[in-house]
Amino acid sequence: MDKRFSSALSTPQSRTLVEYELCLSLEWLCRLRWIAGAGVILATWFARLALGLELAVMPLTVIGVGILVYNVLFIRWLNRLTCDLSGANVPARTQARAQIAADWIAIILLIHYSGGIESPAILYFFFHIILATILLSVHEAYFVAGLAIVLVGGLAGLEYGGWIPHVTVGGLLPVPLYARPLYVGSALVFFASAVIGSVYLATRTTGRLRKREAEIVALSQDLQRAYNRLHMLYESAQTVNSTLELQEVLDRLTRSTAEVMGVKACTIRLLEAGGQSLCLASTYGLPDAYFQKGCLLVDQNPLVREVLTGKVVAVDDIAGDTRLQYPEAALAEGIHAILTAPLIGHQGPLGIIRVYCEKPYCFSDDDKQYLATVASHGSIALENALAYAALRDLDAAKRKFILTVTHELRSPVGVVRSLLRTLAGGYAGALTDVQADMIARALRRTDFLQTLIDDLLDLAAGKAGLRMEETLQSVNLNQIITRVIERYTVPAAEKHLTLQLDLPDVPLHIMGVAEQLDRAFNNLVSNAVKYTPAEGQITVRLQEVEGQAQCTISDTGIGIPEEAQPHLFEEFYRAPNAKTQVKEGTGLGLVITKDILTRYGCTIRVKSGLGEGTTFTVACPLAPEESSD
Amino acid sequence: MAKKTVLIVDDDPDIVLANRLVLESAGYAVEEAASGEECLAKMRAHLPDLVLMDVMMANPLDGYHTTQQISDDPQLRRVPILMVSSITTSQYAAAFPTDQFLDIREFISKPVEPEVLLTKINQHIL
Fold first, then answer.
1. Nearest chain A residue (CA) to B14
2. In the CATH scheme, what architecture does the domain A473-627 have?
3. N or C: which terminal CB in chain A sees fewer CB atoms within 10 Å?
4. A414, A419, A515 member nearest B89 (Cβ)
5. pLDDT band at A326 (very low <50, low <70, confident <90, very high)
6. Does domain A246-387 have CATH number 3.50.50.60?
7. Does ipTM surpass 0.85 in this model?
């Protein structure tokens, strides 16, 4: 089941790491060989010229040159192999063998031409043996050690028997030793035992190093795998938490878990019926038919009960396990192992998450831990989604409540007003002055009540997100404001107020809903008329300022005390001086005004002082040119 | 000349009372219906000159269904209908099917001012 992880690995596996090392060692070996080749030539000529030894100068020089020449060839070959960690270094091993073979031919010739068994160069074999143990495997090292013994023994034997000529180094030894059986025999025994001894020691050391190397490789693989899991866990947590829709959360969780763990399938069952049964909520990788068996009953399923206490439980081989409720169904789907982890929220268990594997015994401790982690972050996402669903239900209930109350409150007040207006209009017969006055008073109160209800409901609707989605249109602000001012011409005249309107020549358009904007500006102008004493002045000016439509509504009214200004846009707030001036007022008008204006991206601010009048400034972004009507 | 008849369709007797007083004082004869079914029955028995229909009868869509049935009936469809509703803004009104199917002459929003009511009725009555 770790196929996915190993394919995701980018570090070398142990084999490629050894190859890599070998590749590097070969470069080093080639560098050493320059010294060896040059050393042979120099030593020969030094012995001949400085020490006066009679040796086979020509063959030895040829051997030295030969070493240098084949070293050039090996270096060229080596340059074609690039040492990297991708694992493509297989020819390195071949070249290691070729280099060793060439060196052995060179050294055996060197030994032959420098006196055979009498040659001091025989000791150089040890370099080669150590190199071989470094470069090759243990078996190959013993093989080449054996070969060294055979070669040296063979050479000594051939020279001893006279089958090949013995090359004597004149002046080195007083008497030739190659024909003395005791010397030859003992030299070979010591040589052989020394060779075997050094191979043994060297392979032991390199063996231990290689073991360490393998451990490091395994460790880095583990690390990489842990990193991959962590990364995938993070990714799956990201995916799962990127939605609040319950089904979406569940589906993403099953899919990502199955994919990351590389298993056949993953399912989530949630507790239902007061925790009595576990019913399927999401599935990935299994056919619907598999779940025809229905919900798992908690009290008939000891395995599930164990999981719900907070444990991750593995069924490693379904065939030999009695804990499952429906083992045949699983086996029929080719499932042999199941791992189950609990989904536990703050209030207790929510359900279980399961992964299904097609091989028995396929879940490691890592897998168990991973599933437990997935389950715990999945539980959080699940709880969030459940809470969100509950919130939405609550919201719907609230909407319904508000709509019901709207109708229940609005309609009786409306009926009362209709009846009173019928009376006041004299449609039910002529009224006396006292009757007419009383009815007018009753009407004023019901009118206020109607406004209060309308404002309240509007506000509540806005707060509850109940407002119907608005289609914003390009609205001619000149028209809106003109209409509002016309509405207040008569009331203003009655109070002997001067109502002045300054409009720009070109109509200004903003994006909004005409009725709502009308209401907002109506509230502002209505306040100005209400709170400006007789003979006062009200000026409404619309102009374009810095790319915005700016409307100022100024009056010479009672003004707003400084301490009251921060509270102006609070629900039910009325400035103390406003209360004494005008008895009836809901304290909702400005709240609604601000609410409307904010919806269309407008800002509203106030400048006022007690007894100095008030100026409200509304600024709205202009509608884009093409949508102007 | 006989008095013109207005059929008031509303399940709220108080509203019916108020409207009846206003209309009768203006010289109209008034008939009442408290449901869509009763409205159709009354229309078939005696064809009124105008129907004043409340949208929000017990079943919110009752007014519309009734209007639909009136529009579908060749005998009844020539009677103008005024729709009264407590839906205040045109935005809400736009949510309802309009004169494509139904011969609704005008929407009047509740509460109806007596003067406004009389003006509209005078304007549309046969």
1. A415
2. 2-Layer Sandwich (3.30)
3. C
4. A515
5. confident
6. no
7. no
